[in-house]
Amino acid sequence: MKPYLAQDLTINGQTVTGPLVGIMTVGQLVNRIITFLFPLASLILLVVLLWGGYDYMTSQGSPDKIKAAQAKITSGIIGFILLTVSYLAVKVIAFVFGLGSGIL
Q1: How many domains does the chain have?
Q2: Is the pTM here over 0.70, yes or no?
Q3: What is the pLDDT of residue 79?
């Protein structure tokens, strides 16, 4: 099988190897991207929670501002839960059809 994403670069006798070396299929590429996506999603969730908490603290009792802050916090948590559930659903489906070695 031919590697489509090889990233070996030789300059003056030194070989520089990129992060995608060894990826032969689209599935391997998706798995590599997923390992980067979850920490990024966690960081985004932290920022959304801090932003919603700041808005909540600075609302000064205004019902509209409190609702907006609670909506930010709720949407951040729901988004992260949806990302996690979709990842687990794909893993379970892959396990059921024999496309992966395990559920997690």
Answers
A1: 1
A2: no
A3: 93
